[in-house]
Amino acid sequence: LTLIDFEIFSQIQSKEFLDQAWTKQDEQEAVHIHQLLSRFTQVQAWVNAECKKINESNKVDYITRFIEISQHCVQFSNYHSLKGIITGLEISAKTVTNFWQGIPSKLLDIFEEIQNVFEPDGGWIYISRVGVPPCIPFLVSCLIPILEIESKYPSFVM
To answer: What is the pLDDT of residue 37?
Structure first.
């Protein structure tokens, strides 16, 4: 996950962030941003699809595996895929009956701590405690402030 995300992320050009290029119909103006956003959707959909295969005999194994992958994403500072996995699990929890039932409390505590990475009041505290600077940010959290700034102060860059 991280190698693929980094390959795309490292190719993003600064001009892709200008003039809300990622919101335009012509994806060529922000091709790498579009690719990374598509990756988020793919990861989230993959997690959700795998969770739909869950039955009582393999549920703990599936959820444990995704929480372990989430921990690796934190380790590698891949917050983009991390958010995709969390979102996929959260969607599955809403659609699969008794999704969290039978999952050990220790595992649920780990998942809750991982979710806190994206909480406005605790996320950066968690990241700073881990001690590794972000490598691949959750791109949407970067694009929203840019969108807000550019809507207030239109770009005059030609």
So the answer is: 93
